[in-house]
Amino acid sequence: MGTVSKALELLDLFTRSRPQIGLSELARLSDVNKATCFRLMGELQNHGLVEQVGAAREYRLGPAVLRLAALREAHVPMRDAAMPVLQELARVTGETAHVSVLSGGQLRSIAHAYSGDFGTKVIMDDVHVLPFHATSSGMAVLAHLDAATQAAELKKPLPARTSNTETDPARLAKRLKDIAARGYAESAGGYEAEVHSFAVPLFDSVGACSGGLAVASPRSRVTSEHTRVVLSGLARAGRELTELWGGSLPPAIDDKWRALA
Amino acid sequence: MGTVSKALELLDLFTRSRPQIGLSELARLSDVNKATCFRLMGELQNHGLVEQVGAAREYRLGPAVLRLAALREAHVPMRDAAMPVLQELARVTGETAHVSVLSGGQLRSIAHAYSGDFGTKVIMDDVHVLPFHATSSGMAVLAHLDAATQAAELKKPLPARTSNTETDPARLAKRLKDIAARGYAESAGGYEAEVHSFAVPLFDSVGACSGGLAVASPRSRVTSEHTRVVLSGLARAGRELTELWGGSLPPAIDDKWRALA
DNA sequence: CAGAGGTGGTTTATTATTCGAACCGACGGT
DNA sequence: ACCGTCGGTTCGAATAATAAACCACCTCTG
Question: Fewest beta carbons within 10 Å, which of A3, A32, A185, B118?
Answer without folding.
Answer: B118
